[in-house]
Amino acid sequence: MYNIGDKVDDLLGLDQNGNEVRLSDYPGKSIALYFYPKDMTSGCTAQACNLRDNYDDLLSASYQVIGVSVDPAQSHLRFIAKNNLPFPLIADTDHKLVEKFGVWGEKSMYGRKYMGTFRTTFIIAPDHTISRIITPKQVKTKDHAAQILEV
H or E element: which one contains 148? Predict the structure, then answer.
């Protein structure tokens, strides 16, 4: 798992269109790399729409938003189209990124245990080091952009 101060590899993964997403594609920007459990669910939609609605403010503050879930690219394309999302979503179907960042693990809902993604956001500085982590207990899906913009 990555911690604050750790250097992140340049290549993150493939987006909804099959294009490589690299940190170096966004020189001089901080990256808000947000991991979320599943496309089209209420909490994930609220979070994505909050980031969409505040996207210009994030860009103005030199942030690039990149979402990550283990859903396939086709699911991401539908999620983006339905919610008019302006940022890329990485299709981490092989779980490499969620495991590397330490956000994949056992979860529980209504007493049923299953493996899933812990909703977490990593702020990656322009030098590709992690400057801040917004943990699953801290993430507010309906006000996430304001959390990212807090310094």
Answer: helix 144-149
- Give the pLDDT confidence of 48-96 residue by residue, as tens digits: 999 999 999 999 999 999 999 999 999 999 999 999 999 999 999 999 9
DSSP letters spanning 88-103: -EEE-TT-HHHHHTT-
Sorted by where each begins, the domain ranges of the chain are 11-139
Residue 110 burial (CB count, 10 A):
4
The dihedrals phi and psi of 65, each to the nearest 5 degrees, come to -95, 135
Q: CA–CA separation, 71 vs 96, rounded Å?
A: 13
CATH assignment of 11-139, among 1.10.10.10, 3.40.30.10, 3.30.70.20, 2.60.40.1730: 3.40.30.10
Report residue 31 CA to chain centroid gap. 9
Furthest C-alpha separation in the chain: 45
- Judge contact between 69 and 33, C-beta under 8 A: no
Residue-wise DSSP of 111-133: TEEEEEE--EEEEE-TTSBEEEE
Active centre residues (catalytic): 44
Whether 29 and 113 have beta carbons less than 8 Å apart is answered as no
